[in-house]
Amino acid sequence: MRFAIVVFPGSNCDRDCHHVLARVLHQPAEFVFHKERALPRTDCVILPGGFSYGDYLRPGAIARFSPILEDVVRFAQNGGLVFGICNGFQVMLEAGLLPGAMRPNRHGRFLCRDVFVRVENAKTALTGRVREGQVLQIPIAHADGNYYAPADVLDEMKRHRQILFRYVDRKGRVRDEANPNGSVENIAGVMNRAGNCFGMMPHPERASEAILRSEDGRALFESLIATGGSR
Amino acid sequence: MMARVTVVVMPRQEVLDPQGRAVAQALRTLGFQEVSECRVGKVIRLTMDGEEADLRSRAEAMATAFLANPVTEEFTVVVEGEPA
């Protein structure tokens, strides 16, 4: 399974993703600079975390107009797998690849710590190797992760099972105390209706090896690999 | 002609504005008890070259495509010299 990891000015999780994909999971993975106009031959595009363009205007708002994004959007429209993590998720929201938008965290602070998320839909390319209801321990690191979508959009997303992860407590219960950033309905990750674009705020690449205390994130990359590429 | 055009971007009323809430709280702490609500947005000032008749629609196009996120924000365009 070939992966392409997009590098924006200000990306800072690109190498972590590459490390997990290439060295932990032994998959061919390459970097693609934001100024490129065409993706290499690939099965999955990763939009990594970081602070593309300094988060100026809004997180993801400027990256969304990077030259490479045009081909990423085309790739997605043709059914290619696209996975945005943290800032990558924000870029996908700004690009319209995923529904909704991000607001600043409700307490106005940058948060960097482990959270628990519950798998809400295990029948997707990103979650095929985890169980529905399974609780994953994965770190977050963001200031703008307060997910929002209007009520009618949320209804539509529920109808098509597009909510992938919710912030929960250790026992898997959706609680306001377990919601780190104020996201509507504790939403931590979503997908598009077609089921080929995914975004989440927690960083699975930071929880993919025992030495990093949690390996729960690795199963998500393994799920993508198990699909063998969708085209 | 050169003109000054201002785009004001504000969080939509139904969208939580943590920054505005924190500022309101700080104002009350400072003794400004009369503040019941505060919303914090952005002011984007553009110097534009173009036909007077087009300035507003061009700035609105910029705001729609890029300067504001329609899911969470709304905007108003003020063209300097145009009657309010």
How does this model look, in words?
The complex is a heterodimer of chains A (231) and B (84). With 231 residues, chain A is α/β, with parallel strands linked by helices. Chain A contains five helices and eleven strands, in the order E-H-E-E-H-E-H-E-E-E-E-H-E-E-E-H. Chain A has one domain (3-227): Class I glutamine amidotransferase (GATase) domain (Rossmann fold), CATH 3.40.50. Chain A is globular, with a radius of gyration of 16 Å. The model of chain A has no long low-confidence stretch (mean pLDDT 96). By secondary structure, chain B is α+β, with helices and mostly antiparallel strands. Chain B has one domain: Mth169, Chain: A (2-Layer Sandwich). A three-stranded antiparallel sheet of chain B has the order 2-1-3, covered by helices on one side. The A-B interface holds A 57-58, 61, 65, 93-94, 100-101, 103-108, 146, 148-150, 182 and B 11, 15-19, 22, 66-67, 69, 71-72.
For the structure shown, list the relevant keywords.
heterodimer, A: 231 residues, alpha/beta, Rossmann fold, 9-stranded mixed sheet, 5 helices, globular, B: 84 residues, alpha+beta, Mth169, Chain: A, 3-stranded antiparallel sheet, 2 helices
**What is the distance, rounded to the nearest whole angstrom, between the alpha carbons of the first and last residues of chain B?**
20 Å
Q: Which secondary-structure class do the elements of chain A indicate? A: alpha/beta
**Helix-strand string of chain B:** EHEHE
State the CATH architecture of chain B: 2-Layer Sandwich
Helix run count of chain A: 5
Biggest sheet: strand arrangement of chain B? 2-1-3
CATH class type of chain A: Alpha Beta
Give the tally of β-strands of chain A: 11
Strand content of chain A: 15-25%
Could you state the CATH homologous superfamily of chain A?
A: Class I glutamine amidotransferase (GATase) domain
Give the overall average pLDDT of chain B.
93
Helix-strand sequence of chain A: EHEEHEHEEEEHEEEH
Query: Helix tally of chain B?
Result: 2
